[in-house]
Amino acid sequence: xxxxxxxxxxxxxxxxxxxxxxxxxxxxxxxxxxxxxxxxxxxxxxxxxxxxxxxxxxxxxxxxxxxxxxxxxxxxxxxxxxxxxxxxxxxxxxxxxxxxxxxxxxxxxxxxxxxxxxxxxxxxxxxxxxxxxxxxxxxxxxxxxxxxxxxxxxxxxxxxxxxxxxxxxxxxxxxxxxxxxxxx
Length: 184
Prior knowledge:
Family: Belongs to the ATPase B chain family.
Oligomer: single chain
Keywords: ATP synthesis, CF(0), Chloroplast, Coiled coil, Hydrogen ion transport, Ion transport, Membrane, Plastid, Thylakoid, Transmembrane, Transmembrane helix, Transport
Helix content: over 70%
Order of helices and strands: HHH
Distance between the termini: 157 Å
Membrane topology: Single-pass membrane protein
Pfam families: ATP-synt_B
Protein name: ATP synthase subunit b, chloroplastic
Number of helices: 3
């Protein structure tokens, strides 16, 4: 803190102009340097600063003009888009009306097609039932025939004795022998 006070005191006492040297006290030289730099900047920079501000002002004005032109173009495009939207809405209403009538036609066609398909399925069902009835009938006939055949074989086996059995075999051998002589 003492250095700060000494630096301000040294500002009050200017040394005599007889000697030239560097002042190494930073706090004492900064305010002087800053005031000199600010003075030079204000004197020489006033024109540059006003030119910079004028250029900035012109750019801002040009940007505003361009924005206005773009806004007008956007408004025109918006109006065109609204006109196209109205046209499309009218066409959509026409398509909707046409679509409803087309849907009704398709609905009637689908119902008719479904009825035809149902009739065909009913016919297929009836044919299948008839076929299954015939098959079941044939199976019953075959079982009855097999049972009758088994019953007949059982009766024949019960009635046949050895002598009758030998005579049947000899008769069949004779028939086969006669057939052999005919073929030779």
